[in-house]
Prior knowledge:
The complex is a heterodimer. Chain A is α+β, with helices and mostly antiparallel strands. Chain A contains ten helices and 23 strands. In chain B, a hairpin with a 2-residue loop joins β16 and β17. Chain B starts with 8 loop residues before the first helix and ends with a strand. The interface between A and B is large, with 83 and 83 residues.
Amino acid sequence: MTQTSDTTATPVITAEPLVDFDVVDATLRAALDAGGEWAELFAEDRESAGVVFDEGRVEEMNSGRDRGVGIRVTAGDITGYAHTSDLSAKGLAEAARTAAAVARRQPHGGTVDMMSFFGTGLAEPQVAVLPASVGAEHKVALLRAADDAARSNHEAITQVTARYGESRRRIMVANTSGVCAADDQVRTLFSVGCVASGDGGLQTGRETVGYTVGWELFDDYDPTELAERAAQRAVTKLAARPAPSGEVPVVIACGGGGVLFHEACGHGLEADLVRKGASVFAGRVGSQVAASGVTLVDDGTMGPEWGALVIDDEGHPTQRNELISDGVLTDYMWDWLRSRDEGRAPSGNGRRQSYTHLPMVRMTNTFVTNGDTDPADIIADTQSGVYVAHLGGGQVNTATGDFVFGMTEAYLISDGVITEPLREGNLIGNGPQVLADIDAIGNDFAMGSPGTCGKDGQGVPVGDGQPTLRVRALTVGGTAA
Amino acid sequence: MSELRQFDTDELAQLAQRVCEQVQGDEQIEVCVSTGRSTTVRAYNGDVESLRSGRTAAIGVRVIEDGRQGFASAGSLDADVVSDTLAAARRNVTFGESDPHQGLAEPDGVDSPGLDLSDTAVLRVSDAEKIAAAIDLERRCLSADSRISGVRVAAWSDGWSQSALASSTGISVQSEHGNCSVGAQPLATDGDETQIGYAGDAARRPDELDIDRVVTESTALATGQLGATKPPSEHLPVVLAPPVVAAFIGVVASVLAADSVLKGRSPFADRVGEQIADERLHLIDDPTEPTTLGAANFDGEGLAARRNALISAGVLCGFLHNAYTARRSDATSTGSAVRGTRSLPGVGTHAPVVATGDIAADMLNASVGNGVLVRGVSGLHSGVNPTSGDFSVGAWGHRIAGGEIAEPFREATIASTLQRMLLAICGIGATAEPLAGGMSMPPLIIADVALSGV
Lengths: 481, 454
């Protein structure tokens, strides 16, 4: 096998590479010499910092640093992977040989003649103000202001936690197919959680904002407003009644409901699960899998959303992938390994939590596009049901499509009007059924809160969004008779 | 087998000690250092799908001065990284705010249980044996039942970790231990329908892994769900299978940690000495039982791990404490600091144990009459609010009709509140069934839970 690429010569990465190109070259050659058919080097340097403000004072100030390399070697269907925090040429060569050891189980005749990298990605962070350049006193001041705002919002607020987090993750990926890419990913996050205390016990409210931006996040978001909203959410729930138990029409507010699609069908459209027959959507490309009008997109280019990336963790540029078009399943999401087997291009969905992990198919920013109905009309048109203003996390069994997700702010709909607040609970549904049961789609598209998606023990940042929409019947896991 | 270890544990202890010795003025320093190596093999279609291995190193430094706390961590033990981490922790202190109760743990004179947890058997397993174990696990799942159509994951994992913790208050402890685990997710197919099962085991020694149970349980869970339907919504008694009991008890234990109590985030604050559960419930945390992977000689602050009663005959005995929550509550630490090298110590359980009850295994369903057996739950992170106690999780399993196991159900939830569920326990199995990691739990019967389906 000869590994070359059309484009030539020097990679366009301008910043200092995490690993020198000659070391990259030597490491990849060592992996092939040791029995690999294809090899990849993934280097990562991550810096993070955070402040936790709790009980009216700074409780925790932390910072962390991680640097390491993962070497992936494949031969046929076998993948070997070795990670190390020893970035010396010797350390990397040893990791390359370790990763390649298992590849010898599947003999092949390939050797590498030459490698010529072509560069993609951004070597410099695309943010206005690097969070690390901002003094900690400003971060503390921001959290204190949020704490004050929440506590003075209502006398029932008895506890407030405000958190600030920043991370900068520099990655470099090079492989024997000629990919050589780098990215510099900056994320900034703020969250505030309030506890309200009343006759009926304790209730909680939370607000979170996070984007792939720097300190300029706070030009657009005022922490005190977010704190007031979180406080109001907790106070409102003090009067909440038990949620109903059983199937009812559910209207999901724009923004925070995108997690429904993340769980209901997003995971099931990941090619690794499809390939193993562990998805209800396997073999259904070209079929109607959702109500007409439903268009589902996964878009890694959607900056500055939480799941946005210039390249994925295999060095491929992210892109906008339309997965469901007007109810018809058009494609799955792909990483390098699964697309190689299908002889197609990857879709920029190969991601990993860190250099210690193997990449796999992951979502980026997943959302349903706008319909044409006024959201007010959707509510007015619902005789009785549940209005979910804010969703928490969820979980799916991809083999059956059964999924749950938590409603952290919900109300009863009576005679087309939003009425009493409901206590927390999970909603449960079946992905294919819910997609077919969407009977109204609003025109008020919005992205939701930043999320962390977990799969096989790896967490990666993701975004989701949708317009207001209604599902004809979803099971609400409350306790009311 | 010392040549297979990355560092000598004594060297780690010396490193931690050397950093602590850099203490200046009134500050306190606590240093946690660790190294680890791990391997994961996944099998697919009768061969290796992937083999991942690696080594990690980590340091976490906590500095406290005038009640202010700073923390920094890094993923390397290189000399420059170690000194940068101490400098970063000191920098972080300058922005902390004073809390009179803040401070490191002080030696309390309690002896550690003195467990020998450093069995090196796992270091002697070759890559070839690990590969064979994963491939064999897949093969055995596939041949367990003709309806098993594939295995999404059949995996072997093992790891070895060494750590040391030292502080300027005179704490100096070290530990090394290994673990290994297997896990399988078989798929069962009948016509257009596919169901997935899961089971796993973990142990300190490879010969303690119960692979028979993993195969039997994972395939039975997958095939048992074939034909499952959505049940009608009703209030009924539920039997929680032992893995579900473990998940439920994990949530209960989290709200009995003093940090959530002190911060007004536990529904059980101010309830010590009161009946918070049915009198049949006895819950302890027991890190001194060496057969579980939760066994420990020391907690995350270097104090002796110890046995703590949480609920006795339904009465709340007390809360779990680390050094900070103890000082703030005018109590003593219960040795319940839990942490990773890279995080500050929190409060939690090591190895929760529920005492068995009096209902024989073959009488469980009969004692319920009509209800449901919940074999698995989902959405614990999204449907349980540990502050309010609201509890609503996805559930699947089998109906119980006329005292017998009946048809499977899925796409349902069970809901109540933690407070009500504890009081509504109306039966505990007489046999604790084995779970991963040497743990075991008896089944629990809870009266009047809302099952939501159609």
